[in-house]
Amino acid sequence: MSNAWIVTCRPFAGLRSFSQALPSRSIASAAASRASARAVHPHLPRLGTAPLKCHSLHPPLLRFLEQRLFTTSATAFSRRPSAASKKPSPAPTTGENDGKSQDKEEKEDTPLPGGNLPQAKITNIFGPGTSAKEGNAFLRALQHRRVTGSLAEKGVNFRQGGPVAFPRERALNALEYLRSTCPVDEEAAAVEWAQREAERLEAELIQRAQNLRLYKKSDPGQTLGSVYGHSELEALRKRNEEIYEREQDEKERQAAIKEREGTGKTGTLGPVKAKAELRKKEKSEWVKYYEEQAMLRKEKEAPKMSAAARILPSAFVAAVVLGICYFLHTSYVPPPSSARLWPDTPPALSTCLALLNINLFIFLAWRFPPLWRPFNKYLLQTPGYPTAASLLGNIFSHQDPKHLFMNMLILMGAGPQLHELVGRGTFLAIYLSGGVLGSLFSLASSVAARNFAVSTLGASGALAATIGALLMLKDADAFTLPFFPEYRIPVSSYGLLGACLAYEVWGLTRRGQTGMDHVAHLGGYATGMAAAGGLKWQVAERRRRAEEKKREMGFLQRTFGSGKD
């Protein structure tokens, strides 16, 4: 058994090179002894100049089996043949046989590139007395060994059952002929053949060990358990990995939702579409038709426009609105009480209620599908496909009931107070200019950031201008609660304004997570504060007179104004 093992594992100890398989006499000297010598092509490499180093093909498993398993079990599993069963070993048939007839021979028959050679060529290679059939069979077998790489191990010797054996000199002449006429990278083929042989022998040894129950192949999906038993650290690691994977999936899902829906409100930032919360899942054909018509562009991508083309038309509209606001501030004359529709209603209340009704009407009109297309065009500001008129129209537009309620609550709380300080014309000028400039700043910011998948609507910019101007003009150490003038908050107007600005700056750092357009808010605050700076000295006397009158007013007059101007 041990002798058989050594013979079986011989290729792993180092493959024999072709130079070892041949006698010490070189191919050139063998060819020179013949009468008709043939030159070898100078550029063709000769196989066998150095032995192939294949010690790396000896895998650890084979070393383990060789040193421990088979050597210790050789005597246990071997049987000594009895005298009756002994048979004389057959004598070798030819000197070229290498004595390894126990290996199964493969059929060695690779066609020559140019086909079989004629009899004259065979005679020139092998000498007289060799038929064309025998010569071509030997050449095909030799070519097979060159192509497969087995030439480095087997050489030019053939076993029983192969082609007709030739003297070594003639076999070497045939090899020289093939090398000169059919170039093959014999060294690379020999390396590949050695690797295949190593894998084959390893598989045979593993199978033999399995048959002898000395080795059991492990399941690829099976993991080895710890010798110390169950590990809490390993269980904790697996739980943490599962939690991390769930968190990553949730983040990806939220990112996909935000990509589809935009970043929220501005006043509200949101996708360019009609509000969908009040629609049924099963839409009628009538609704589907107007929903299709409401799409200003069928393409999902924003049109290719320069930053100037997106901003300059809206900037022109903003300049026109600012001119109108300046005219209101300088030229507005309040009508006499006899010309008013409700003369007993304070002007501040009338103005703010008119603004509230406009916003409420547009909010309800959003529920009428035939209006979706013009509203998307003129009451919704979209940086991806901007319309200049939407710079003014979006400050009167709301789609969310909560958004409308909060904005109108601020309007009715802060609007009458500012109206009472500056008058109707100046109040409307501050309100409109704050909304328009806030929308313009928001548009420029979105274009600069190339954030085209959002839309802007809402009165938040105009209300921010109202609050900023009111807090600058109040200049008080305590602030009166809206609708409850008898209660005062011990916070200065400048402190409250600073808190509002700090919140907006903090919101910018959240990068859209708050759902509000903080750029539009800051633009509104800046507009209101700038207007208050120009009006502060003019309003001082007006405010003093208003404070004297409030002492003689009732609740309605104290809250919404005196009923004049």
TrEMBL record:
Composition-biased stretches (Basic and acidic residues): 97-110, 244-263
Coiled-coil blocks: none
Subcellular location: Membrane
Bias type Low complexity, positions: 78-88
Keywords: Hydrolase, Membrane, Transmembrane, Transmembrane helix
Recorded topology in the membrane: Multi-pass membrane protein
GO cellular-component term (any): membrane
Transmembrane segments: 307-328, 348-368, 427-446, 452-473
Domain of life: Eukaryota
GO terms of molecular function: serine-type endopeptidase activity
Domain Peptidase S54 rhomboid: 391-532
SUPFAM superfamilies: Rhomboid-like
GO biological process, one term: signal peptide processing
Entry-linked InterPro entries: Peptidase_S54_rhomboid_dom (IPR022764), Rhomboid-like_sf (IPR035952), Rhomboid_protease_S54 (IPR050925)
Segments of this protein annotated with the region Disordered: 76-128, 244-274
Sequence similarity: Belongs to the peptidase S54 family.
Protein name: Rhomboid family protein
